[in-house]
Design goal:
This protein is mainly alpha-helical and about 400 residues long. It contains 18 helices and no strands. It starts with a helix and ends with a helix. The mean pLDDT is about 85.
């Protein structure tokens, strides 16, 4: 019966990708707030909310189960997107920030729990070694959802306004709630003994800190994810210098189609160690972005879209490395601690990029994030070369 989790997880990833406003969210927020700094602050509030709620959500997941925890996420997303749609209809900026808080909470609820669910499902099926393959395939379906979303958004923005995009974005997450309802709880969480939440957190943090390898990769994940996500959120504003609003969605659609390929080719890299795969993909991601921004012409959005070919390998290999190091009893909590710290870095990255964009332009903001990612890559290789890990 638990085998159906694999199919349902792919479906939830697909539906989660159907956020029609995604590629133009910062543009939509800017039309309401009249400032890129404030528009990026909406994402910053979301990230801060995620940061605050990460650890409670991880504890919640480890104590009451994966399915019940995941059911909360689509409910919160629906409420958040409704508030954002209303913010555009009535030009109320405060609704954007309220919605951002709910969306951030939804991300915290989902973070760690979804990975833990698929890992524990594979473990119960006796196929733990295939976690990387199933994880990549599932995330690939998320990219399919994002591709479909971008194409549909391009059509909608060609004939309608961004406001329409904001309203229709609510629908897929209602469907996602129905799908999550049918998940099967892994036996390991059903039999888990309950303990004091503070003790549970202390033990998870202690194991995370004492594991040198996990601490190293968690640090990379925190900074790389923060600036990578900030870049992803801001790309739409940069692309507008070269293509129209509906064209931004076309570029984003191409990007996600390449993302599908990026995730589905992961199984073909079985003979490559996860460490080499992780750093190779990390380098490819940063290098392609740098080439695109350096050229700074009509080809830049399309060049930068190809980073998705590396995204699947980078995220899958990182997840595989960390899931192998997590303890079974504190799996979601340990992931939530890492996500919590990532959120702190992300708040800084989002605000920084917004301020830089207001003063120096979108290109400089994007370039700043790319240089940070390259710096993290170089520092990581130096540490590995010294065999400090």
């Amino acid at each position: 019966m638990i085998h159906r989790n694999i199919i349902l997880f792919k479906l939830t990833q697909f539906l989660g990708g159907l956020w029609f406003l995604s590629s133009l969210a910062v543009v939509y927020f800017e039309t309401i707030t009249q400032s890129y700094a404030l528009a990026m602050a909406v994402f910053a509030i979301s990230s801060l909310s995620t940061t605050v709620m990460e650890i409670p959500a991880g504890l919640f997941s480890d104590k009451i189960g994966r399915r019940k925890t995941l059911l909360c996420s689509p409910i919160l997303v629906c409420l958040a997107f409704l508030l954002w749609a209303l913010a555009g209809s009535f030009q109320y900026s405060f609704l954007l920030f309220l919605g951002a808080f709910l969306w951030g909470t939804a991300e915290a609820v989902k973070s760690g729990t979804d990975e833990a669910l698929i890992y524990e499902t594979m473990d119960e099926l006796g196929e733990r070694e295939n976690f990387k393959i199933q994880y990549a395939k599932s995330r690939g379906w998320g990219q399919i959802g994002l591709s479909v979303s971008a194409v549909m958004a391009a059509v909608i923005t060609y004939f309608c306004s961004l406001q329409v995009l904001a309203w229709v974005s609510v629908i897929p997450f209602i469907a996602q709630f129905v799908v999550v309802w049918f998940f099967v709880e892994p036996k390991c969480t059903q039999k888990r003994k309950t303990s004091n939440s503070w003790t549970h957190f202390q033990l998870a943090f202690k194991k995370l800190w004492q594991n040198k390898k996990l601490r190293f990769y968690a640090g990379i994940e925190m900074i790389d994810t923060a600036f990578g996500m900030a870049t992803f959120r801001f790309e739409g504003a940069y692309y507008q210098a070269f293509v129209k609003e509906w064209g931004v969605n076309i570029v984003r659609g191409i990007k996600h189609i390449l993302g599908i390929i990026g995730f589905f080719i992961v199984p073909y890299f079985r003979k490559i160690s996860v460490v080499k795969l992780f750093f190779g993909a990390m380098f490819g991601n940063a290098f392609v972005r740098l080439v695109g921004v350096t050229l700074n012409n009509v080809f830049s959005p399309f060049i930068m879209a190809t980073v998705s070919l590396f995204y699947g390998s980078e995220k899958t290999s990182c997840a595989d490395i960390m899931q192998q190091e997590f303890s079974s009893e504190q799996r979601a909590t340990m992931k939530s601690i890492i996500s919590c710290l990532s959120g702190i870095f992300m708040v800084f990255a989002l605000v920084l990029m917004g301020l830089i964009a207001d003063k120096y332009g979108a290109r400089t903001a994007i370039l700043t994030a790319i240089l940070v990612k390259i710096g993290v890559f170089i520092c990581s290789l130096i540490i590995l070369k010294k065999k400090a890990i």
